[in-house]
Amino acid sequence: MDKNDLSERLFRFAVDILKMLKTLKGEFEINIISFQLGKSASSSGANYDESQAAVSRADFSNKIAISLLLLPCF
Predict the structure, then answer these.
(1) Torsion of CA 46, 50, 52, 56, to 10 degrees
(2) How far is the C-alpha of 42 from the C-alpha of 34, rounded, in Å?
(3) Judging by beta carbons within 10 Å of its beta carbon (0-12, 13-18, 19+), is residue 44 exposed, middle or buried?
(4) Residue 22 domain boundaries
(5) How many structural domains are present in the chain?
(6) Which residues contact 40 (CB under 8 A, 6 or more apart)?
(7) pTM above 0.70, yes or no
(8) What angle do CA 34, 49, 18 make, to 5 degrees?
(9) Whole-angstrom Cα distance, residue 17 to residue 44?
(10) What is the DSSP letter of 56?
């Protein structure tokens, strides 16, 4: 597995979700859910990248745990 494989996959995931969200047309409620899904899809990758700059093992563990908690389960 490539060192940056997860980072690349999380980036592609966020881009794919954002592309899918652009196709949705709907009422106010759909727009709210779409906005939140877009933020969630991109935050996992951002938190993972942040964990790569950790200054200690404890810092890394904390940041990677945040990233894993944000990953959607679908």
Answers:
(1) -150
(2) 12
(3) buried
(4) 5-70
(5) 1
(6) 70, 72
(7) yes
(8) 20
(9) 12
(10) S
